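can u do me a favor
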């Protein structure tokens, strides 16, 4: 009986952790050069497809009315706050990886091929944006 109770308790503790191994949630990214917190991004899922919007800008020089002046698609001239920067990512069949979508860098207006991989039990998210053989990977930290 004691063994069964221990198994139930450990299982109950593990369930929330297992449920977090997904990019869905609120994440904080940092500036590649300074390490300063840059933005909070909320990733949501609808019909198996992920999207992500800037929920809060954290840089010292960020202004509420800042626009995506460098964007060249339907996001051109839109406010950075609330801007959709992740579009179309789907879970890969045989891995804990989401890919096939695009990620926008609002600073230069470019869209990059996206790959996201939850790590450390879903506490962090490796986000890779690439263009051909070139790209960079950031590690975002889960806030919620």
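np, heres the sequence
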């Amino acid at each position: 009986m004691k063994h069964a109770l221990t198994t139930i308790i450990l299982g109950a503790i593990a369930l929330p952790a297992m449920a977090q191994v997904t990019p869905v949630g609120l994440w904080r990214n940092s500036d590649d050069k300074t390490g300063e917190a840059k933005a909070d991004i909320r990733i949501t899922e609808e019909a198996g497809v992920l999207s992500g919007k800037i929920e809060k800008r954290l840089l010292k020089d960020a202004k509420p009315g800042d626009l995506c002046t460098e964007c060249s698609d339907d996001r051109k001239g839109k406010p950075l706050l609330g801007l959709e920067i992740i579009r179309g990512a789907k879970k890969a069949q045989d891995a804990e990886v989401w890919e096939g979508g695009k990620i926008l860098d609002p600073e230069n207006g470019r869209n990059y091929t996206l790959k996201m991989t939850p790590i450390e039990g879903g506490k962090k998210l490796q986000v890779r944006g690439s263009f051909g053989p070139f790209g960079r990977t950031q590690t975002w930290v889960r806030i919620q």
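The helical segments are 2-19. hope that helps!!
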